[in-house]
Amino acid sequence: MRLPAPPYHFVTRVTELDAEPGVLRPARITTEYDVPEDAWYAVDGGVPPAVTVESGQCDLLLVSYLGIDFRNKGERVYRLLDSSLVFRGGLPTTGQTLRYEISIDRFVHQGDTTIFFFSYDCYADGELILELRDACAGFFSKKELETPLGVVLTDQDRARRAALPKGSFKPLAATTKNQLDAADLELLAQGRPGDVFGPEHAQDPGINPALRLPDARLRMVDEVTVDRKGGPCELGSISAVKHLEPDAWYFTCHFPDDPVLAGSLIAEGAIQLLQVYLMHQGMHLTLPDARFQTVTDRRIDVQVRGQVTPKDAEIRYEVEVTELTLLPRPTVVADVLIHLGDKPVVRMQNLGLQIVEKPGTPYRPETGGVPAFLGRRNRDGEAAMINELHLAHSAKGLLDMAMGPEFEIYRTSRAPYIPNGDFQFVDRVMSLTGTRGDLSPGSEMVTEYDSPDDAWYYRENSTPYMPNCVYMESSLQAAIFLGYYLGATLREPQEEYSIRNLDGRATLVKDVDLRGKTVRHRSKLLMTSVVSGAVLQNFSYELSADGEVFYTGESLFGYFSASALANQVGLDSGTYRPTWLEEEKPAPERVKRIELGPDAPAFRDASGGRLHLPGGRFDLVDRVDLVADGGRHGAGYVHGQRSIRPDEWYFDCHFHRDPVMPGSLGVEAVLQALRLFVLDQGLAGGMTRPRFAMATDVEMSWKYRGQILRDDRELFFDVHVKEVREEAGRLLLIADADLWKPGLRIYELTDVAIEVRPDAD
C-alpha cells in the first residue's frame, strides 16, 4: 500500500490518528498539506480541483496503518470505486494549509476481497471547502482488474437522460472555432482566448490572468470538439481525447510499482473541458479579474469501473451539458463519461464549474450606477458599462448586482424586472448620460443587443427576418432599463411596483436583415410624473445596426402598485364593448370560420417556398372568423381567438415574479390575422416568390389598459382592414385592431400593418 510519489504527493504532516494497528475497524486520521507558494500546478495562484481532491489521499495511509497489507499479502492493489463530492467553498490558493479530517467508516469482506467505505472534510485555513461522502474503494487481484465491467447504464439512467429539459443559451461572443488541437489549448493556457476563438473573445492585457488552462504538465486533454447545441438539453456537448504516454509522470508517481492514472487527474480533464466551454461561450468576458471555481453545494457523483494503465494509448471524454447560465455567475454543469476504447469506465454526474470574481474585484455598478471597467468590450472594441451578467440579474437575479448597492433594498421584496430567457432582447449598457436620482428629461442610455443568426424567432418566423415583437420588445426593454437604472422606484422603496407599457408609437424606417448583427438602442427620457400609486415615464428611442437607423418610436410606461393594478377597468371604463361580429351580426354565409390548430396545417405549409404563417412560439391564434367585405371600413374583417394556458412559455419570461403576456405578442397575433387574410383572399397571387415582412414607413400606435394573466383563459381580437395598397415592389395592408380579455377590451392598435414583397434571397 503506497501513497502517490512526487509530484503527486500532497500531504505534509499527520496531526491526529485514532486507529488500532492490525484491526480493520472504523478509524480516523487528520492530515495537513501546505500548498507551496510556487506550486507547479497552480494557475495564477489558484489550486486546481484535482489537487484539492487528491490532497485527501491519506485514506491510503490510514488503511495501511490498520494493516491491510497483512491481509492482501502483496497480491491485491487499491482501486477507488465510488464517491460523492460537494464543494462548500472556493478552491484553495497557494500559501494556504489544507486540513483533511478523514474517517474510514466500515469494512466489507467478500472472500479475499476487501471493500472499505470512507469520507473526509477539507478545510482551507480553517474554512470548510469540500466534503467527500459515500466513498468506496477496494483491493483487487490482477485477474479481477483485467476484466472490468465498465460503467453499466441502467434503464433508470437512460430515463433520467431522456427526461432532462431542453434549454437554450446565447453565447456572449460568436465563434466558428469548434475543433481545438494541442496548439489551441496551449494558447488558452497562455490566457489568449481571442487567438483561439476570434477577436470577439479577446480581453485587454492584464484582464483575467487566472482564466486559463493549466500548463502542459497538468493538461489532461489534447484534442477537443465542441457542438454548441449538442446533448440531450441542446446546451452543448464536448468530445475530447487525451493521448497517454506509458512512461509519463502521471503513471510513474501513482503508484510506485502499480502505475495507474489517478481518478482525480481523469476528473481534471473533465474540468478543463468545462473551462474550454465557458471560454467558447464567451463567459470570461463578464468580469475583469476572476477565477474558475467549482460550483458549491451541489453533489457530484463519481463511478469508476475500470483502470487506466500504461498499456492504454488514450482515454476519450464525452461531456453533455445539462445547465448553462449566467446566474448567479457564469456557470456550466455537465454529465461526463470517460471511455477506454468503446467501454465507459468512469462516470461523473452533475459536475459544475463557474467563473467567480476574486475577492475585492469590482463586479457590479458602484453607488450612483457608474462602475469601473468590468472587462467587457463589444464587437467594435468599445468598453461596455455593464454587460450580459448584469442584464441577466436585472431579468431574473439580484437587482443590486445589475444596478448597484442602492438596489439592495429589493433583496427581500418584489420589484420590477426586464423580461428574461428567450424574451430578453437587451445585452449590454454602453453608456449613460444622466445622474441616478435625477428623473428630469434629457437622460440618455445607449444599449446593445446581439441578434444571433440562429435565434428562435428567425427559425420559427414565416421568413428568416426579425418579427415585429422583437423590434418592439428590444426597444421597449432598453427604454425601461434607462428609467429603472436612474432610480424611478427608489423614492418609494417600500412600494412593490409592477411595470406596464401603456402607450406607444413606432415606425420601421427600413427593413434590415439583422441576422448575426448587433442592434444598438439609443433611449432618451422625455418625462417623469409621480402620481398616487404610480410613476409614469415617457421615452423616445431609435434602433440602428452598422450605424444605420432602422426603427424609431416613443412609448409611455408606468410603475404601478398592487392596489393600482387591481382596479383596472380596460379601455372602456369597466364596461364591455362588444366585438364587431357581436354588434353587426353579419349573415352566416358572409362569415368564414378558419381553424388554425394542428389538424389544419394548410396555412403553415412552407413547401415549395409558398407564403405561410409562422409556427412554434408564434402559434398565437387558434381560429378566426373572416368577413371579406366586413369591418368598420368595409375592406375586410378578421375576428381571432386564442385559448390561454397557465403554462404558456412567455409567462415565465415576462416578467420574473410578475407573469403577464407581453403586449407585443398580442400585436403579433393581430399581424398573423392580417397575414391569414392575405392568404385566404389570395392577395399576393401575382407576386414572384412572395414573403411576409414588416411594413416600412407606416407608424403604428398602441394603447394598453390591461394585461393577459395566467388564469384569463382566452383572448380575442378584432382586425379591421382599412387599406390594401399595391405599390412598386410591395403589397401593403393597414388595419386597426382591438384585443379583449374576458370582459374587457384592453388593447387598441392603430395602423397596424404588414407587407408582402418579393424575396430577394
TrEMBL record:
SUPFAM superfamilies: Thioesterase/thiol ester dehydrase-isomerase (SSF54637). Its main location: cytoplasm. Its EC number is 4.2.1.59, 5.3.3.14. It catalyses: a (3R)-hydroxyacyl-[ACP] = a (2E)-enoyl-[ACP] + H2O. It is found in: Cytoplasm. Pathway: Lipid metabolism; fatty acid biosynthesis. GO terms for cellular component: cytoplasm. Gene3D superfamilies: Hotdog Thioesterase (3.10.129.10). Keywords: Cytoplasm, Fatty acid biosynthesis, Fatty acid metabolism, Isomerase, Lipid biosynthesis, Lipid metabolism, Lyase. InterPro entries: FabA, FabA_FabZ, HotDog_dom_sf. One of its GO terms (molecular function) is (3R)-hydroxyacyl-[acyl-carrier-protein] dehydratase activity. Homodimer. Belongs to the thioester dehydratase family. FabA subfamily. This is 3-hydroxydecanoyl-[acyl-carrier-protein] dehydratase. It comes from Streptomyces griseoflavus Tu4000. The lineage of its organism: Bacteria, Bacillati, Actinomycetota, Actinomycetes, Kitasatosporales.
